[in-house]
Amino acid sequence: MTAGSPSLNPGVARREVFAWAMYDFANSGYTTVVLTAVFNAYFVSVVAGNAPWATFLWTAALSVSYFVVMVIGPLLGAWADAHAAKKPMLAVTTLVCIAGTVALAWSGPGAVRWAVAFIVVSNVAYSMGENLCAAFLPELARPEALGRVSGWGWSLGYFGGILALGISLAWVMTAQSRGSTTTLAVPGTMVITAAIYGLAALPTFFWLRERAIPAAVPGTRAAFARLLQTARSARRYRDLLLVFACGVFYQAGVATVIALAAIYAAQVMGFKTQDTILLVLVVNVTAAIGAFGFGYAQDRIGKTAALRYTIVGWVAMTVMAYFSRSGGMFWVAANLAGLCMGSSQSAGRALVAYLAPSDRSAEFFGLWGVATRLAAILGPLTYGAVTWITGGNHRLAILLTGVFFLVSLAILAFVDERRGRSEVA
Questions:
Q1: What is the CATH number of the domain that holds 339?
Q2: What is the pTM of this model?
Q3: Residues 210, 69, 119, 125: what is their CA dihedral angle, to the nearest 10 degrees?
């Protein structure tokens, strides 16, 4: 990761790549604490009072936020490309997400509308920021090294999640010594998460450069024109479109695990809050290992092949989770999910960067955001509906999640990454 490294484009310095990867570090606390380990379970059990519709409402709130991202994501990406303004837009989305996360600290018992409103606001901002940050990847890494550089960011990101979750765990576990309770301590973890997000993102805005060149005629009309031009030449991007379709299904499964892992652990396996937080901490370590290791593997065996292996791992995980009757077996399933999560997320980002035109990176990552957010609606909402219809059968819901991964494998079989690269190179 030094200046002049064969992994980096000419003129890209080590601290720039570090600054870019630090945004993964910064925003991972949001997904880990708010969406995966703490606030989701708190919403179901405390805010919604374990109502029969609580899990469904949680997934519905996330679905609304992802629908908003699907609508505005590509347009914002095209606008950022036309204005060479990825970095200013990233700053705006970061501030909104931080503010929305702090607002969640006021979500107490019965404050359902408040919690739903700020989950939507914060998650929209988080998702937009994730797309904009990913759009810098082709500017930093050489085409043949996109996998490993993407892996650097994802692996560092998981350690950001570990930091936020570790401090949150300490805050929750010391609640009694402060004369409080575990339940009353959860809102404080939202402030902790927001603070880490803001501080860790500072290197991104200090050192990351915007290398894009503004369009000759910038403006909202130019953004629409870019999207229209992309639509007209869709056949040119057939392999990338197949990746998007594949992403809808495998990311549906990934999004389900991220959004509902803590709920599954609590409702099915009987985990307490401290147990769940500890589990997610360990899983973040295995996810970091998966992202880093498979980042290098992608560049050697091919990004499509690497993604295929990780999706097979996801199928195995859903089967193991379904049959888990002991805490030990569930721990194994959860850590397999961690390995697959890190590698599949990194591989997807690298594959999109590899197949997208370099001068339209924000636009195409906006379209990738449409695929992943559609997935985030489809997966968790299906899971929530199954639990509602079956009277809380989480085991059946997690088993059906495996179907998403099987469909994605079938679509991925038609992707030819060499052909796709040759069409845009």
A1: 1.20.1250.20
A2: 0.78
A3: 10
Name 149's Cβ contacts closer than 8 Å, sequence gap at least 6. Answer: 7, 8, 17, 137, 140, 141, 295, 350
Residue 65's contacts (CB-CB under 8 Å, 6 or more residues apart) are 119, 120, 121, 123, 124, 127
Instruction: For residues 415 and 425, give the distance between their C-alpha atoms in angstroms, rounded to a whole number.
Output: 17
Q: What's residue 227's pLDDT? A: 55
Given CA atoms 228, 230, 236, 237 in this order, what sign does their dihedral have? negative
Q: Is residue 221 included in any domain, yes or no?
A: no
Residue range of the domain that includes 411: 14-208+232-424
Residue 214 lies in a domain: no
Among the listed residues 260, 199, 213, 225, the one whose alpha carbon sits nearest the alpha carbon of residue 74: 225
266 is a domain residue: yes
* Separation CA 363–CA 150 (nearest Å): 18
The number of folded domains in the chain is: 1
Q: Tell me: the pLDDT tens digits for 42-69? A: 998 899 998 888 888 998 898 899 889 8
Span 264-277, pLDDT tens digits: 888 888 888 778 87
User: Residues 126-185: pLDDT tens digits?
Assistant: 999 998 998 898 888 888 888 888 888 888 888 898 899 889 989 988 988 888 887 889
**How far is Cα 128 from Cα 110, in angstroms, rounded to an integer?**
29
Among all chains, which residue has been given the structure tokens 């997934």? 59
Whether 238 is in a domain gets the answer yes
SS3 141: strand
